[in-house]
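2024-03-11 09:14:02 DEBUG pipeline.ingest accepted 1 chain
2024-03-11 09:14:02 DEBUG pipeline.ingest length=292
2024-03-11 09:14:03 DEBUG pipeline.predict start
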Amino acid sequence: MFSTFIERITAYMSGFYLPRIHVIDVVEILIIAVLLYFFINWIQRTRAYALLRGIVVIAVFIAIAYATQMTVILYIVQSVAQVALIAAAVIFQPELRKALETLGNKSFFSFLKLEPSSARTPGLADRTISEILRAVNEMSELRTGALIVFEQKILLTDYINTGIAMDSEVSSQLLVNIFEHNTPLHDGAVILRGDRVAAATCYLPLSDNAQISKRYGTRHRAGLGISEVSDSFTIIVSEETGRISCAYMGNLTTGVTPGELREQLHQLQKNFGIERSERKMRIWKGRERDER
């Protein structure tokens, strides 16, 4: 009986083909895995991540259409496939160009290192919120124009490099002095990376939204423009009226009161806390798997 069982197992396994694995195959798999890891790690910090998720949704829809034999939809997909590839290259052109420039400027071994902790956006402390609110209220009363950008998941390194690096602790005196009239740093935006002032006099992309009122100048268009290309949160103080505005995800909110601004900053603080707790949870789960 046992010999019959062995014969059946042998006959069943004879239908499987197990290719021989060589050393070069293992090296090739490791190279692909490393490249894929760094690609995912890089794209999560750019605005292309949202576009990539949209492409994944479309791919899933096409797979469902293929499984259910939706012939008309499959014919349309086949017709526009080549055009879609060209459109994807055009859409991702800034990100692809930046990636190639980074690849050319760095050595090979630098890609084997993880992203330094200084380049990751830390949390937002209560003290930082208090200092920012004090500075914004003072500049609003004095009608001092200001543009303060909070970096979140999408890194703003390209825009930080256009300004003057500071890496200073956030304080109301520092922010007021930066945006004071006739000072060397007052022209441009201040970008905050967590509880630190990363840079001042930074140049931001201007929004080309035709629905913006003509009474808003370059400062408001710059604040709205950076919110259209990233997930940053921006505070704008008008130099003419002293009114406080906020820009987030392509939306401009004007006439923000100090209480409303405090609530929005605390919500921003919660977002940092959620992202940090999720990162810790992923690390904890990885350690738990290693222990097991």
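2024-03-11 09:14:41 DEBUG pipeline.report Strands lie at 146-150, 164-169, 189-193, 196-202, 233-237, 244-248, 251-253.
2024-03-11 09:14:41 DEBUG pipeline.predict end
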